[in-house]
Every structure is written in C-alpha cells, then in structure tokens.
Automatic annotation (TrEMBL), chain A:
<dbReference type="GO" id="GO:0051604">
    <property type="term" value="P:protein maturation"/>
</dbReference>
<keyword id="KW-0159">Chromosome partition</keyword>
<protein>
    <submittedName>
        <fullName>MIP18 family protein</fullName>
    </submittedName>
</protein>
<dbReference type="InterPro" id="IPR039796">
    <property type="entry name" value="MIP18"/>
</dbReference>
<dbReference type="InterPro" id="IPR034904">
    <property type="entry name" value="FSCA_dom_sf"/>
</dbReference>
<comment type="similarity">
    <text>Belongs to the MIP18 family.</text>
</comment>
<dbReference type="GO" id="GO:0007059">
    <property type="term" value="P:chromosome segregation"/>
</dbReference>
<dbReference type="GO" id="GO:0140535">
    <property type="term" value="C:intracellular protein-containing complex"/>
</dbReference>
<dbReference type="GO" id="GO:1990229">
    <property type="term" value="C:iron-sulfur cluster assembly complex"/>
</dbReference>
Automatic annotation (TrEMBL), chain B:
<comment type="function">
    <text>Essential component of the cytosolic iron-sulfur (Fe/S) protein assembly machinery. Required for the maturation of extramitochondrial Fe/S proteins.</text>
</comment>
<feature type="repeat" description="WD">
    <location>
        <begin position="69"/>
        <end position="101"/>
    </location>
</feature>
<feature type="repeat" description="WD">
    <location>
        <begin position="158"/>
        <end position="189"/>
    </location>
</feature>
<keyword id="KW-0677">Repeat</keyword>
<dbReference type="InterPro" id="IPR001680">
    <property type="entry name" value="WD40_rpt"/>
</dbReference>
<keyword id="KW-0853">WD repeat</keyword>
<dbReference type="GO" id="GO:0016226">
    <property type="term" value="P:iron-sulfur cluster assembly"/>
</dbReference>
<comment type="similarity">
    <text>Belongs to the WD repeat CIA1 family.</text>
</comment>
<dbReference type="InterPro" id="IPR015943">
    <property type="entry name" value="WD40/YVTN_repeat-like_dom_sf"/>
</dbReference>
Length: 122, 351
C-alpha cells in the first residue's frame, strides 16, 4: 500500500486506504498524541455484509500497520447505510472482530481483499 | 484503619509474561490449598488458545506451573474455578466449555460441554457448587447441573436476550444468575420455586436507568446486596437489592434497582469491574487505565454514592480486559491485557 503524505504526521508507519476506493483523505482522523485513529468510510455497495467486510478489512490493515498503542474507531459514513448503527456496533466490538477473524472463511476473504494484487472492488 | 479515609497507591508487584496473544480472562483459585498446597493460584486464558496456571512459590512470586493447550481450537475467552478449587472451567470461541480436574499435580480435561451454536463468552460456577452457567453469541444462557462422576447435564437453555450475551455471573449466596449483553440489557434469572423451571425474573435496560450500549461485565459485592456492571457506554453502574427479605430467600435477589452511575472516569469501553471483599471496586478499560472506587461515607439520609479512590493511567500498554481481586488477600489485584501480559498489583495506604 502506498503511503499518503498528509497521514504520515508523526506516526511510525505509512498507510493508505485509498486503494480500497472507499475512503477519502478527509475521512481519516489521526490524533497521534492520544494514539487515536478514526476512520469513516463509505461502502460502495448497499449490501450490509459487504459493508461489514470492508470495515473489517480496514481494521485489519490498520492493526497490522499501526503501532499497538493506537485505538481505532471505524464508522460507516452517516446516511450512507440503513443499518449503520448496527454495522458500527459490530465493527467496534473487539470481541466480535476477534471471533470473526478466527473464522477461516472470513479471514481468507479479508486476506484476499488486502493483498496487493486486489485492485478494485466490484 | 479504614481504607476509605486514607490515600492509596497501586504498586505493581509483578508482570506475568508468556501468553502469545491477548489475555482475555483471569480467575483466582478460591481454595488453592486443595490444589497441592499453593498459597495462591491464578488461571489466565488467552487468544493464543491456551490456559495458563500461575502458582505462588516460596519467593512469593507467581510462576507459570501449567499450560493447558491442544484442547480448545480457538480463543479461550473465560475461565472459572469451582468453589472447592479442584475444577476449572474454560469457555472458548470454539463453542465448547471444557472442564478440567486437578489430579495428582496436573489438570485433566474430564468433560466438554457442547451445545452452543457459536462462541462461548463466559462461564461461572454457583457458590453452591451445584450449577454452572455459560453464555454465547448465540444469544442464549445455558445452565448445567453438576452430577456425580464428572457429568454435567444441561437443565435449561435460557432465551431472552436479543443479542450476543457477554458474561454470566452467579450470585455469591443464592442460586440466582445475572447475564449481561450486547443488547445493552442486564437479566436476572432464577428457578421457579416448585417447577425447577428457570426464567427471567428481571430485565434492567435503558428504561430502568440501565446502560446505553453493550454491557461487558457484572460483579457482586461479597454480601450479595450490590452489583456493579460495566459498559461500552463508558459508565459503571451500581445496583442494589432490597435486603428486607432474609438473605437465603431467592426472591430478595430478584429486584434490583439502580443506585448510582459512575461516569467520566474512563474514555473507552469498560471491559471489566470486580468487587473486593473489602468493598473496593476495580475497573479496567480500553483506555489502558485501571480505576478503584469506594463507597462515599456521607450523610445517612442521602442515597449511597461512590467516589474514585485512584486512577492508574497506562496500567498496561493496551486495553485491559479483566480485573480480579485475590479472594485470599484482599489488597492484591490482577489485571489482564491485550498486550499479552498480566499484572499483579497491591493496594497500599500511603501516609
């Protein structure tokens, strides 16, 4: 993943989510001092499970790129999804996320989505 | 000398390392002398799929004496000792609950409780030793009766929560069970006097001054007339039950009312809270901080309230998932974290 100049600030690792084509520059807030990152993403498809998977991919990518001190909140852009409260709750429940990532099928999907060869979302 | 009136600090006595992933749960053995004469025994469970047992040796430090592995195939989320201290139950994301028995210096898996449709989140033994309870993302709470010969019979599958059930905890004195959930509610379950049917006797939700988001934990005080719950809504809530009825009456523990809400102390989800036998409430959260609270001694006319005794910022490098007071030494506290470590603390009065 390419690094994004304005997101570098004083974080130790570069990261970029534009390749996922769901996140724009304005929708990532980093507070290095508080070790807090907030990502707001717009799912490109209406389907609920896709939005959850995208959110999960973002979380995994950040988990692997950022120092462990960072607290990450991932939210669906308001007004873009019918069940956004329910998606947000799942994406920010670390126990649910941990269990999901122990599901081999789900993990395979996430790994595939994050692999460098995965260029576009259909 | 009353702890309430002094200044205290939290001294880090030891850091236990070894788990290869986040530590989710902790449990102090209530009767360690029944397990080979150890003065203290702590069980810890982890995302690394193992359970570790730490024993206090002659040096007064805890060393890892046993690793229970190759049983659960996914995260071990919760562990609990039986009241006699000879059995340990482990609840896993692999949807099973394993029962381990202390046999001649080692732990043997003597039973596997199956039935939940997906991840088991919590397991608890009743103080009577008669029952076990488990809960799961499948929204149910199961009650198991302990039979002779290491047999466990499921006696109830309790439905009522509309979402993932995060934790279950038996009342310290009577066979009353409390469950807390992702559906933001707290439910109290008891057996019907005559019919042996378990049912929900009370639900505490946002309407009853309950939580506004996922409730992660519940813990009782030693006398069983108060309980504390912790939530993703960043608050701790204290609940009280009328003690007008004799303490052995189950009904007396089925009507809880909101007493007090502690807010503004943690900036992220509060994953765990535990009550010491001395009355100190410890809480651990996603802000890496550990807090201690005590009851405010005030005007007897006013409603009881609680105040912050101490806040330890950066108690760990990452989220704190569990805090547990040592039942044998009421000033000793253990905390478990996403950072893979367990810390042992001592509450000390400072002059």
């Amino acid at each position: 993943m390419l690094s994004h100049p304005t997101l570098m600030t004083s974080t130790e690792h570069p990261y970029s989510l534009e390749e996922l084509k769901v996140v724009s520059e304005d929708s990532i807030e980093v507070d290095d001092k508080l070790s807090h990152v907030r990502v707001v993403f717009t799912p490109t498809v209406e389907h609920c499970s896709m939005a959850t998977i995208i959110g999960l991919c973002i979380r995994v990518k950040l988990m692997r790129s950022l120092p462990s001190r960072f607290k990450v909140d991932i939210l669906v852009a308001p007004g873009t999804h019918e069940t956004e409260a329910s998606i947000n709750k799942q994406l920010n429940d670390k126990e649910r996320v941990a269990a999901a990532l122990e599901n081999p099928n789900l993990l395979e999907i996430v790994e595939e989505c994050l692999s460098p060869s995965f260029q576009t979302w259909t | 000398m009353e702890l309430l009136d002094s200044n205290v600090d939290l001294k880090e006595l030891q850091k236990l390392q070894g788990h290869a992933d986040r530590v989710w749960g902790l449990a102090w053995n209530p009767a360690p002398h029944n397990c080979g004469g150890a003065s203290a025994m702590l069980a810890s469970c982890s995302g690394d799929k193992t359970l570790r047992i730490w024993q206090m040796g002659p040096t007064h430090r805890l060393d890892c004496s046993t690793i229970l592995e190759d049983t659960h195939t996914r995260t071990v989320r919760s562990c609990a000792w039986s009241p006699c201290g000879k059995f340990l139950a482990t609840a896993s994301f692999d949807s099973t609950t394993a029962i381990w028995k202390y046999v001649g210096g080692d732990f043997e898996c003597v039973a596997t409780l199956e039935g939940h449709e997906n991840e088991v989140k919590s397991v608890t033994w009743s103080s009577s030793g008669t029952f076990l309870a488990t809960c799961s993302r499948d929204k149910t709470v199961w009650i198991w009766e302990v039979q002779p010969g290491d047999e466990y019979d499921c006696v109830a599958v309790l439905q009522g929560h509309s979402q993932d059930v995060k934790m279950v905890q038996w009342h310290p004195l009577v066979d009353v069970l409390v469950s807390v959930s992702y559906d933001n509610s707290i439910k109290v379950w008891a057996e019907d006097g005559d019919s042996d049917d378990w049912h929900c006797v009370q639900t505490l939700n946002e309407g009853s001054s309950g939580h506004a988001s996922t409730v992660w934990s519940v813990a009782f005080n030693s006398s069983g007339d108060r309980m504390v719950t912790s939530s993703d809504d960043l608050t701790l809530k204290i609940w009280d039950t009328s003690s007008a009825i004799s303490q052995t009456d189950t009904e007396g523990f089925a009507s809880w009312r909101h007493l007090c809400t502690l807010s503004g102390y943690h900036g992220r989800t509060i994953f765990s809270a535990h009550w010491s036998s001395e009355g100190i409430i410890a809480s651990g959260a996603g802000d890496d901080a550990l807090c201690l609270f005590v009851e405010e001694k005030g005007n007897s006319i006013e409603e009881p309230s609680y105040r912050l005794l101490l806040k330890k910022e950066k108690a760990h490098d990452m989220d704190i998932n569990s805090v547990r007071w040592n039942p044998k030494d009421q000033r000793i506290l253990a905390s478990a974290s996403d950072d893979g470590t367990i810390k042992i603390w001592e509450v000390r009065e400072i002059s």
